[in-house]
Design a protein that fits this description.
The complex is a heterodimer of chains A (552) and B (196).
Chain A: H1 23-27, H2 32-61, H3 71-105, H4 114-133, H5 161-189, H6 202-234, H7 247-264, H8 267-281, H9 288-302, H10 317-345, H11 354-377, H12 379-385, H13 389-419, H14 425-451, H15 467-498, H16 536-541
Chain B: H1 2-44, H2 53-56, H3 59-84, H4 90-117, H5 126-157, H6 166-193
Helix pairs in contact in B: 1-5, 1-6, 3-4, 3-6, 4-5, 5-6
The chains are: A mainly alpha (552), B mainly alpha (196).
């Protein structure tokens, strides 16, 4: 064996995370924890921007016939708000949590491809910054976040806003795709001994399924963006109706990405809830297999329902029935999850920490959003209500009442792990109640506005009966919501200096990320406890009461 | 002996990771091309005015270049086998693959040149838009494949400097087969189906 002379892997010295916490160490980092935090901070920055855009819109709509903003500015604001919140806030937050937590949950040192992870993050940041530079080059995009043709085409949008939008999303899309591939490979190949797929924490399960959605849905966005850019740059004719192109084709392409995207934004949120609810109910998750399997069912169904965004087009009777049925079918696996979470809480000794409060509120708000979703799957209802404020209320109940509430639950739950210090529960309770109140004030009345006939994306409105009052309530709610978010920021800043030291496992949780110090060292684990089931830390601390029915 | 084992297991994990990532990447790319092909089929069946596939494309000539591209799948397989079995011929097979790929690209450029002379451009009509977008993105992928193969060729020629990694060549060959399979679909749809 003479050829065995050199070590195969150059053993470079690992940089010490704590000691060299410099700016350069963050900018050049390939560590999944640092990149996860970078994702979260980036999302936080864009959350502030997107939130301010929303406030400007609500000020404009507070009273009838208002002239606070110009109509052009209003169009740019709702386009940027939608694009920012979806692509630069919700998705990066969920990716950041996944990147930080999945390797810890499966007992790995890092993700499968640390440098690809960095590439994904920087592409995302670049795309976001690029999107916003459009403001300095004439105009921001103003055609709505789904950019319907022919409005997005050159004859109708001659300024470069649409190009900035498309190129920015292209970069974000490729970055997200890289992260999706990375997460799947991490879950499939990097699990510590004993962590089988049947013992995987549900957050990791859902992140993995979610990553498959990313891998198969994002290319449809990239393809449609490529065609749009070729249309605009090279005068091709894909989506211009006057020369035979079909705007409907854009809608098909965009929504065949856009509907899976909805689940890309909600599946990891389901994962957070599936971690938080059992820990604070002091019971293992009810029906682990059903929660995991229903995730797969949602993912598969999500590819076959995109045309329910397009009922107003008039696709024909057969298509309408097919897509209405498919969309209603999604309520089944989603309902299974809701029941599983409720039964996890059933007879548990519930600890209503802030995280648990948000998780409980998630169940209520998300169910409201889900129910209005099922109503939209009924084609005649959709014809009546589409493009009114009911759809605005629906999307915000799903994405704010659903995903953001889950993210808040996740932030309160994992903040001690990431920062080493606890958040204040007293401030958290204030944050929780102001959020619930502000959120419902803002968006519940929008259901009524929509039924009363107010269409979305209008710059202002005449003084119709009740419209002024309902809009004023909505605006006041939005400011309360903004105030509640300030409480969260204050809580975070305060915790950095004055928060109680968390210790490795402040919540007495059971998954592997709590088996190491808070924050974890660069190498994550000095020693990984033996894993015999989905709750390794429970088994470790209660060797005589192991989860018999869980550990197979 | 332990170092050998360590090397094998590290290489084994790397191989597993990169192959899985390549498969995911390639299936994602397949959806991308599926969308472009769908756009082509959608507009071809609505038979736009002006030039179309039946009038301007030459399936026979492109058929020859297609044969070149498809046989390059075979040569890259031989290259990979040579490396796996540690037999000579890696560089030769890589060079042959690159040559066949380059012939295909030359054929594509030749066809573009002829079409542009006949004033069939991307902005002429929907046939032009869909045809150039679809074949253009494919040609871009062939070009990227040639660059990757070129890097492998340089590595294989400078054995003293680099140790060629089995998994790298395997990934590139997966990608190259994928580019070929996409072309089979494009050729069938654009040159065979729509020239009928």
């Amino acid at each position: 064996m003479s050829e065995v002379s050199v070590l195969p892997l150059p053993m470079r010295e690992l940089r010490d995370f704590e000691e060299k916490n410099t700016l350069l160490s963050w900018l050049s980092s390939c560590d999944h924890k640092q990149l996860g935090i970078l994702y979260l901070l980036t999302a936080l920055g864009f959350f502030i921007i997107g939130g301010c855009e929303a406030l400007f819109m609500r000020i404009q709509l507070a009273v009838p016939s208002n002239h606070f903003l110009k109509p052009e500015a209003y169009d740019q604001l709702f386009t940027l708000h939608g694009t920012t919140m979806i692509f630069l806030v919700v998705v990066p937050t969920l990716l950041g949590l996944s990147m930080y937590l999945v390797p810890l949950m499966i007992g790995a040192r890092d993700v499968a491809f640390p440098r690809l992870n960095a590439l994904g993050y920087w592409l995302l940041l670049f795309g976001g910054v690029f999107l916003y530079t459009s403001i300095f080059f004439g105009n921001a995009p103003d055609m709505g976040w789904f950019s319907y043709a022919p409005l997005s085409e050159k004859p109708y949008s001659s300024l470069p806003g649409v190009d900035f939008w498309a190129l920015g999303l292209f970069s974000i899309g490729i970055g997200t795709l890289a992260s999706g591939i990375n997460l799947i490979v991490t879950v499939f190949t990097m699990r510590a001994p004993g962590v089988t797929m049947k013992r995987l924490p549900l957050f990791a399960w859902m992140t993995m399924v979610n990553s498959f959605l990313i891998v198969f849905a994002l290319p449809a966005l990239n393809a449609s963006l490529a065609m749009l850019l070729i249309d605009r740059g090279l005068h091709a004719r894909f989506f211009t109706p006057d020369t035979g192109g079909s705007p409907i084709l854009w809608q098909h392409f965009f929504w065949s990405f856009g509907h899976p995207e909805v689940y890309i934004m909600v599946l990891p949120a389901f994962g957070i809830i599936s971690e938080v609810v059992p820990v604070f109910s002091r019971q293992p998750i009810f029906g682990y297999g059903f929660v995991a399997a229903s995730t797969v069912a949602i993912a598969l169904l999500s590819f076959a329902v995109w045309a329910h965004h397009m009922f107003a087009v008039g696709l024909g009777h057969a298509m309408d029935i097919f897509f209405a049925f498919g969309s209603m079918l999604i309520a089944v696996p989603t309902g299974i999850k809701i029941f599983n979470w409720v039964f996890t809480m059933w007879n548990g000794s519930i600890r209503f920490t802030t995280a648990m409060k948000f998780a409980t509120a998630f169940l209520v708000e998300f169910t409201v959003g889900g129910l209005s979703g099922v109503i939209f799957a009924v084609v005649p209802m959709d014809w009546q209500l589409t493009d009114t404020y009911v759809i605005v209320a629906h999307i915000h109940y799903v994405l704010f009442g659903g995903t953001m509430f889950a993210i808040f639950a996740g932030v309160y739950y994992w903040w001690p792990k990431m920062s080493g210090r606890m958040l204040s529960e007293r401030l958290g309770t204030w944050h929780f109640w102001t959020t619930v109140l502000g959120f419902n004030l803002t968006f519940f009345v929008q259901h009524m506005l929509g039924v009363a006939g107010m269409t979305r994306r209008v710059w202002t409105y005449p003084a119709m009966p009740h419209w002024g009052l309902l809009n004023m309530i909505s605006t006041l709610g939005a400011f309360l919501l903004a105030g509640s978010t300030v409480l969260l920021f204050w809580n975070m800043l305060r915790s950095r200096r004055h928060g109680h030291i968390a210790g490795p496992n402040p919540w007495e949780a059971w998954t592997l990320e709590w088996a190491t110090s808070s924050p974890p060292p660069l190498y994550n684990f000095a020693q990984i406890p033996p894993v015999h089931g989905p709750r390794p830390l429970w088994d470790l601390h209660h060797p005589d009461q192991q989860d018999r029915y869980l550990n197979k | 002996m332990d170092v050998q084992l360590l090397e094998n297991s590290a290489e084994g994990l790397l191989q597993k990771k990169t192959l899985l990532a390549t498969l995911l990447f390639v299936s994602s790319e397949a959806i991308f091309f599926a969308c472009l092909i769908a756009a082509y089929v959608y507009y071809a069946s609505s038979s736009p005015a002006g030039p179309n596939a039946q009038k301007v494309l030459d399936p026979l000539k492109t058929g020859f270049y297609t044969a070149c591209l498809l046989s390059s799948s075979l040569t890259v397989f031989f290259a990979e086998r040579a490396q796996r079995k540690r037999k000579p011929g890696l560089s030769r097979w890589l060079a042959a693959t690159m040559g066949l790929g380059a012939i295909f690209l030359y054929g594509e450029m030749h066809e573009y040149h002829r079409l542009l002379n006949e004033n069939v451009t991307i902005s002429r009509n929907l046939f032009g838009s869909t045809y150039y977008t679809l074949t253009g993105f494919h040609a871009l992928h062939v070009t990227i494949g040639l660059i990757l193969l070129g890097i492998m060729l340089v590595i294989s020629l400078k054995k003293k400097m680099f140790k060629p990694q089995q998994s790298a060549l395997e990934c590139i060959s997966y990608y190259w087969h994928f580019v070929d399979v996409v072309w089979v679909a494009v050729f069938s749809v654009v040159y065979l189906w729509s020239t009928q």
